[in-house]
Structure formats: C-alpha cells, structure tokens
Design brief:
The chain has 800 residues and is an all-alpha fold. The protein has helices spanning 4-15, 20-34, 46-52, 64-71, 80-93, 97-123, 126-131, 137-150, 155-158, 164-185, 189-207, 216-228, 232-239, 242-261, 263-268, 277-296, 320-341, 343-354, 377-395, 401-427, 432-442, 447-459, 463-476, 484-497, 501-513, 524-538, 541-551, 558-574, 578-583, 592-603, 607-620, 625-648, 654-658, 660-675, 683-693, 698-710, 714-725, 732-744, 748-761, 768-778. Helix 23 (463-476) packs antiparallel against helix 24 (484-497), helix 30 runs parallel beside helix 32 and helix 34 runs antiparallel to helix 35. The longest helix is centred in the first third of the chain and has 27 residues, at 97-123. Residues 782-800 have low confidence and may be disordered.
Length: 800
C-alpha cells in the first residue's frame, strides 16, 4: 500500500520536478501579473471619505496619541489596523495612488501565503489526510490556494482600495487559524508556545481590522470538532446531566429578552434603507446563490462594483427566493452528512456560510458587494478540490500517473484562465469613466451609479450628457434609495462652473423647495455652498451670506469650515464698498465682520463658533457695545444650558445621593424599559414607588409621565406633567414632555407655547431647530400662556 510520503513523492517526481513550495512562488507571480494593471486605478465610493478627506488619517509618527487619533474616526477601534496602513501609505507615498495599490497587492500576497500555510496545517491533521483519497495533501493545499488567489471575484477586495479592510481581516483570520492548528497538533513545546503567541497576536489584529472577525471563535470550534477532536461534542454531551441542561435552558430563557431588547440597535441600521429586515433576510438567500454563481462562472462581464439587486418581499416574490432557500438548506444538509465521511467538504461548506453570516443576515448593510466573498470563498475552493478528489476516485481506483498529470495540467490551465479573467476585469478599473460606465451598463437604475457617472461626464467636458444623467438620477430616486441632494448639488455645481450663475441659483432654490420627504441630507451643505457662491457672483450678497450660514449649520464637518471661511471672505469683500456694507448691514468698522458672523452663529445656536468669532471681534474692539451684547447673550445661553443639563443629571441631585431606594427604583424601571420587556408591567409600580419616596422631586414624576405617554395614556401623562411643573417650573424635560403631550392631542398652539418655553430654558437643546420650526408653523402670539394644574407646590402628593 502506498504511504502518504510515497503519494507526495509520486506527485512531485512524476508530474514536475518542482516542489509545491516552489510552485507556490509561481502563484504569487500570477497575482502580480493579474494586478499589474491596477497601480493607477482611481479612488471610488468610500475611498475618499475614508482615507483622503479624513484628517485623522494623516499622522506624523506612531505615538500613542497618533493611534488614539486613528481610533477616533467613524470606524472606531474596530478598524484601527487598516486605518494605520492608510496612514503609513500617506507617509511613504505622499498621497500617491500607486502606493495605496502596491500595499493592497502586498496584503493580497500575504493573505495568499496565509491561505497556503492554513491549508498545509489543516491537511497535516490525520482526519484531513484520510478525507483525501487521490490528491496528495501538499498539492491539495496548493490547488486551493492558487484558485483562491487569482479568482477575479477578489478584485473588489484588492483593486477597490478601501476594501483592504476585508483583505486585512482575512489575512489575520487565516494566520490565527493556522497558528491554532499548529498549537494543537505540534508535540514540541517551543513550537507550541510560538504557535500560541502567534495565535493571540493574529487574533487581536483580526479584531482590530473588521467586525466580521468575531466569527473567528466559531471557526476555531469548527476546526477543533472536525479535524482535531471529533469526539468533543459527544464527550461534552455525555458529561452533561439533564439538570444542567434544564438550568442552561432557564438561563437562556431569562437572557433572551436582553437579546431581543438590544435588537433595536440592529433595527436602527435599516432606518435609511429601502428594505426591511425581513426583506433583507429573504433577499440575501438569492444573493448567496448569486455569490456562488460568480465563483463557479467567473466571466469578467458578470462582476460589478455596484450591483442593483431586486428585493425579495416573500418566499414567492420572486419565486427564486424559495428555490434559493431550498438550495442553501440542501448544502447545509450535505455539510452535515459529509461530516461523517469527508470532513473537508463539511468544513468548506460551513466555513463559507459562517463567514457570510454577519454581512448577509440581519444587519442593515447594502445588499451585495463582491469583496464580502474574500474570506468565505476559501471554503468554496476547499469543497471544489475535495469534489475533484472524490470524482477521480470514481473514475479510476488506481494511482494513475497520467490522470495526475491531467489534473495538474488542468489546474494550471484554470489558474491561467482565472489570471486572465482577473486582468481583464481590472481593465475596467483603468479610470473613473470606464468603471462607472461599466456599473451604469449593469445597474442602469441605481441612483448612486448615475450620480457618479454624471459627475465624471461633466469633469471630462461632456456637460450636457452629465446634466442629463444627473437629472435621470433625481427622477429614479425613491424613498431611502436616492441621491437627490447630491445629484442636485452636482447639477448646480456644473452650471456654476460654466458661469451660468443665475440658472445655478434658480435650480438650487427649486431643488431645495421641491425636495421630497425623507431624503438623505448628506448633500445639503454642498448645495448651500454652491448656492452661496452663485449668489455672490450675481452680486446678491445677503442671499449669499444666508446660504453660507446654512451650510455652516452642520457642525464639525469640512464643509462647515469651508462655509465659515466663505462667510468671512464675503464680508471682507463687502466691507470694501458702501454698496456691500449696505446689503449686509455692516458698519464701516474693523470689528463689523467678526461681529456679524458671531451674531449670525449665535442666532443659529452654534455657541462654540460664536465664542471663537466673539473673541476675534473683541480683539478688534474690546468696547464695542453690540459685540458686548452678543457676549452677554451667549453667556446667558450657556448658563441656561449648563443649568438644564445639571438638572437632569441624577448624580448631581441630593435625593439620588441620599435615597438609595429612590435611585434603585428608577434604575429598575429604566433597565426593564430598555432591556427586559417581559417585565414591562412592573415599570409603573417602580416609578410610582420612586415618586412616593420623593414627592417633591420632578425626576420620578417625569419618568412616570413619559411612560404613560409611551403607553398611549396621553391625558394622564399631561395631567401628571402639569402637576409636577408647579414645583419645577424650569425643569426642561417636563416642559418638553408637556409639548409632546399637546402635540399628540393635536393641540399645536399649546404645544408651540411649551416648546417656546423649553427653548427659553434650554436654548441649546439638541432638537432646537425642529422645535423652532414647529413654533413658526404654529404662529403663536407672545401673550399666549400655558395653564398649570391648580395645585400648590407645598401640597403635591405622590401620583396615583
């Protein structure tokens, strides 16, 4: 009988004189060849926002302060390592796109190396060796690695720069699995120690690269139960008694409400999507089948950066949803059956689905992106080569050398074809126009695609085509699936750059006035900046200044800083002429510019920037009466804000410090409302008890009234709110709650009075703009008053 060593030797000597390690180097050469035409591919989609326009990515050193800066981006600590690599690319390449692409290719090469080492480690286990009947483990590892590395589906993770996040997490994921297997099967203590240290380091790096690394523990369990300790499950079950299982079941039942309550954060991810959570789950069934079709039939024309996938509304709408479900269920059944006889097939199927579970399930991400296959596709190629091994066993029971040569040459041909397909696919990435044209051809009804194509056409001088495409973008938009303001802004920008300032201003006003409800407001600042510039060129300085001031409303953004700079530049220009000063009501004083900006920002409740411009104005003239008046108003507003915030801070309230039971009742009520819905019936009891303990304190009364409003007891909520307002006239949560109660009763006049009072007590309220707009709509008169419950503060009793 031929031993494992003889089998490997036979493959090596009779087919090629080169060892698998040397052949692996050829695979790396194929990678370099297939991605050599991407070094100057453009930045697209999230690239600019993530590592070009994000100022926190630009660091000068690797100090703790710099790392904290990187971890404070919108991605947080969970993607620190990818952001660090972007920062390094900036430092080395000085912004050159070539440097970013070289790093992405290098990461793919390292990931390929990690895949090869993982497969070698996996195939060194006795169970994996027994699963292979014909192909030698070394060549099985090589074939899987080669097909994974050069498959064109990986282009979106390699050529699309920002998706190095996907390739980096895969690199560390594969490396951690490899070290785990080495640590479990190595006999030598030093090797085991090195492996376990490597495992810890790579696992931590995976967790700092992308969130789907959280499936790593399950992948480790999969490896352990299939290849290292196949009896683990049985042994655990044999030691567990029914009492322990019952206790575990009870604990799970008690914890389930906590899980259910925290699903609200997941539901929030669907707030700006054009599909529901159930529609996403149903659609992803078809998406997964589509992913598999891309892996099986990898023709370059089938790949797309921007897929536009039809939503599944039920299992029969469209009918292919049910077929997809049955197909996926059959694959999982095969994985279960194969776990007894061919664990490589079982592992491959389960690994594929395991690593799609986060991005293809209940989280409100976009439906389809090919880079999501970078990590799970390894499972697919393991299954494919394992099936070839089984197929050969049925074709020929003998250890036929010619058959081995055919398999080897066939694999080489497939690798060459895939390399060619990858290179062809990458030609689409040669510039922004070819890429977006390709996307528009394959997804002609996707607003984001048409918006990007319209901009690119305009940049290339094809203005009419660009404007027509952008108008089409606006027409195609639907709720939560539109680019209305972005496309509108791009139209206005194109007209402005053509010198058509009046048309640009008219279009901007029209688009803002006719905007649909529920639109994405991401492009608002840009369109206001372009509107302001158009009015400036037309000489309408007041309208220009107003537009810039609206653009500055969204604080902390780059566009807000640009808007503030534009406001200052406009005023400085206006100061040079009497006409300009007259339009903007400016005195001919050096202090006028910064005072005007400070006053405008104060009116829009941007207190931080108000302070900044007040300081500059007072440096110009410390005794200017109007400036000092703004300063007094600002100090008064800040003091009110501070008082309002302190009033609701339980830690600052004496009653919370000295009355433990009071604080405990409030905590229990809050915990149950937020995280343990089965006990919601007890919330009112806890809040009543808290109010009984401290009848003079408005906090418990507020929470009780709020709970009654939430449970549709509006009249009782309003009565209780009035009751407590007698003793806490300035307690802003009660004032706001009264307004909301009146709003629920459609008593808009009284609601507006309460909201006016709210803003008088808390001018910096986070929702001030919404309330101020409501007040203007209600058109309340200054003499309108709110009537309190006729109860003396001294006689307030606990609510019933």
């Amino acid at each position: 009988m031929m031993t494992e060593k003889d089998k490997n030797h036979s493959w090596q000597v009779r087919i090629t004189s080169l060892s698998p390690h040397v052949l692996f180097l050829f695979v790396l050469c194929f990678i370099c060849l297939s991605y050599s035409n991407t070094l100057y591919s453009p930045l697209v989609l999230d690239d600019k926002a993530t590592f070009i326009d994000e100022p926190k990515v630009y660091i000068d050193n690797f100090s703790l302060e710099s790392l904290q800066k990187l971890s404070s981006t919108r991605f947080g600590l969970g993607r620190l390592i990818p952001l660090l690599t972007f920062a390094i690319d900036h430092m080395i390449g000085k912004g050159s796109v070539k440097q970013f692409h070289l790093t992405n290719i290098l990461i793919h090469i390292l990931s390929t190396t990690a895949v090869y080492l993982l497969m070698r480690a996996l195939c060194s286990t006795l169970i994996a060796k027994r699963s292979l009947k014909f192909i030698a483990p070394e060549y099985f590892s090589l074939f899987v690695t080669a097909l994974w590395a050069v498959h064109p589906v990986q282009t979106n993770a390699v050529t699309y720069l920002v998706q190095r996040m996907a390739s980096l997490v895969a690199l560390f994921y594969f490396a951690a699995l490899t070290c785990y297997i080495w640590g479990r099967i190595n006999i030598s203590k030093p090797q085991r120690y090195i492996a376990w240290v490597g495992f810890i380091i790579f696992a931590l790096c995976a967790f700092l690269s992308k969130e789907n690394s959280f499936t790593l523990p399950l992948a480790l369990l999969l490896v352990e139960m299939l290849f290292i300790s196949p009896e683990l499950g049985k042994n655990i079950m044999a030691k567990i008694r029914w009492q322990q299982l019952l206790g575990l079941a009870i604990v799970i039942l008690l914890l389930l409400p906590l899980l259910y309550a925290n699903l609200s954060t997941i539901y929030e991810t669907f707030s700006n999507r054009h599909f529901t959570i159930s529609e996403r789950l149903l659609t992803e069934l078809r998406v997964i089948v589509f992913y598999l079709s891309l892996l099986i039939f990898p023709l370059p024309g089938r790949f797309n950066l921007e897929h536009d996938f039809t939503i599944s509304h039920s299992l029969l709408a469209p009918p292919t949803t049910l077929l997809a479900l049955l197909f996926i269920a059959s694959l999982l059944w095969i994985a279960f059956k194969a776990s007894r006889h061919n664990k490589l097939i079982s592992f491959g199927i389960l690994f594929f689905f395991l690593n799609l579970i986060l991005e293809s399930s209940i989280i409100g991400l976009e439906l389809v992106f090919e880079h999501r296959l970078y990590l799970p596709s390894l499972g697919f190629f393991i299954v494919m080569i394992a099936l070839v091994d089984i197929g050969i066993r049925f074709i020929s029971a003998k250890n036929d050398i010619e058959l081995k040569q055919i398999i080897f040459l066939g694999t080489v041909i497939i690798v060459c074809v895939l390399t060619t397909f990858t290179s062809i696919r990458n030609t689409v990435w040669q510039d922004e126009y070819t890429l977006m044209k390709d996307c528009a051809k394959k997804s002609p009804n996707k607003p984001r695609v048409l918006n990007n194509l319209g901009v690119i056409l305009a940049i290339s001088g094809r203005y009419e085509e660009g404007l027509a495409t952008l108008e089409q973008t606006i027409a195609l938009g639907k709720n939560n699936y539109e680019e209305y303001l972005k496309a509108a802004n791009n139209i206005v920008n194109i007209l402005r750059e053509q010198g058509k300032f009046q048309e640009a201003a008219d279009r901007a006003e029209k688009y803002i006035k006719e905007r649909p409800k529920g639109i994405n407001w991401d492009g608002f600042q840009r369109i206001m900046l372009n509107l302001g510039t158009a009015y400036w060129k037309l000489g309408n300085l007041q309208a220009s200044f107003e537009a810039f001031s609206y653009a500055a409303l969204v604080k902390g953004t780059t566009d807000a800083k640009i808007a503030l700079g534009a406001m200052e530049a406009l005023l400085l220009e206006a100061m040079t002429s009497e006409k300009g000063r007259l339009q903007l009501e400016l005195e001919n004083k050096p202090v006028a510019v910064h005072r005007k900006i400070a006053g405008t920002l104060f009116a829009k409740r941007d207190y931080r920037n108000t302070e900044q411009y007040l300081k500059m104005a007072l440096e110009k003239d410390p005794n200017d009466i109007a400036t000092l008046e703004i300063k007094r108003n600002l100090e008064n507003a800040l003091e009110k804000n501070k008082r309002a915030i302190n009033a609701v801070n339980l830690a600052n309230r004496p009653v919370s410090i000295h009355n433990f039971r009071f604080k405990s009742y409030l905590f229990l009520a809050g915990f149950i409302e937020k995280s343990y819905h089965p006990l919601e019936g007890s919330i009112e009891y806890f809040l009543k008890e808290a109010a009984r303990l401290e009848p003079q304190d408005p906090v418990a009364g507020y929470y009780l009234a709020r709970w009654r409003l939430k449970t549709n007891q509006t009249d009782e909520a309003l009565k209780l709110t009035k009751h407590y307002l007698n003793s806490a006239l300035d307690f802003f949560p009660l004032i706001e709650l009264a307004g909301l109660c009146y709003q629920e009763q459609n008593n808009n006049k009284q609601a507006a009075i309460m909201f006016s009072r709210l803003l008088a007590n808390y001018p910096g309220h986070p929702d001030w703009a919404e309330y101020e707009n409501f007040i203007k709509t209600a058109k309340i008169q200054p003499d309108n008053k709110f009537e309190l419950e006729k109860t003396k503060p001294a006689t307030i009793n606990a609510p019933q």
